[in-house]
Amino acid sequence: MPGLKPGQVLVRNHAIGLNPVDWKVLGGALVNWRLGHVPGVDGAGTVVAVADDAMRYLLGRRVAYHQALGEHGSFAEYTPVAAGVLLTVPDTLDFETAASVPCPALTAWQALEKVPCRVAREILVSGAGGAVGNYLVQIAADRGFVVSVSSHERHWERLRERGASHFLPGAVDETIGATPELARRFYAVFDSIDARYAARWAPAVAANGHIVCIQGRFDTPPLPPFTSSASLHEVALNALHTYGDDAAWLETTTAGSMLLAGIANGRMQPEARVTGDFEKLPAQLEGLRHRRFSGKPVVLVD
């Protein structure tokens, strides 16, 4: 049973959500973990212990969380988590679904928060077929944006149901990007593939528009100076654990709890889940790395 630092609670995990970052960090190139560190960023379960009496009101609460990479993670029966990062899981929502939500949904929300809301302006979500795209399309449509997507055609019907209006081919290859007829069409482009692909969409951004890189960041501006004057944004959800203050976390956890409530009441649709027991976690992680299945992998701890 792990010990608790001040401000932490102990979560008994009932389900673990797997994300691409989980396999990316296991090689050791991105983080400096010591032997024995527990990986995993997303989980959902019940608060069973608190660091001090002032937090006893949290005991028994159903929660989900996105854990800091520097702390012991969700690939365990119990995880110590800072109380300030907990998301409230409604009683009507199962832990399996809740564990699938934090990383992709909060990333999508954070990406959209970079861009001022302009009702009826058209945006493009590149790489929309993945987990982040699932939530980004829904949140953007709910805010009044006209949503276009670039993804494989097999995702189009699902994305139409989520709120997308226009569809562009989007196989992840060297041909993806803006065509002349798309010049300066979009108020904002949200790319979830990488900065190279995001740069290819730059000519499609309208004057004073926005380009949001969800994976990676631009090393150099993708457009010449004194042209469309697009604002460039990066998204780094886990960095909030290091650089975010209490106000930033309150905004984030409030949004996350509202997204979970939206899923519980049917206003927001989660990804389809691919579940397995704890013994199958390595196989699911390897399958996620090599895209051997479609859907969100979730490990059931109970």
TrEMBL record:
GO MF term set: oxidoreductase activity
Residue ranges occupied by any Enoyl reductase (ER) domain in the UniProt entry: 3-299
InterPro entries named in the record: ADH-like_N, ER, GroES-like_sf, Lipid_raft_assoc_Zn_ADH, NAD(P)-bd_dom_sf
PANTHER family per record: PROTEIN AST1-RELATED (PTHR43482:SF1)
Any Pfam family the entry gives: ADH_N
UniProt xrefs under SUPFAM superfamilies: GroES-like, NAD(P)-binding Rossmann-fold domains
Protein name in UniProt: Alcohol dehydrogenase GroES-like protein
Organism annotation: Burkholderia orbicola (strain AU 1054)
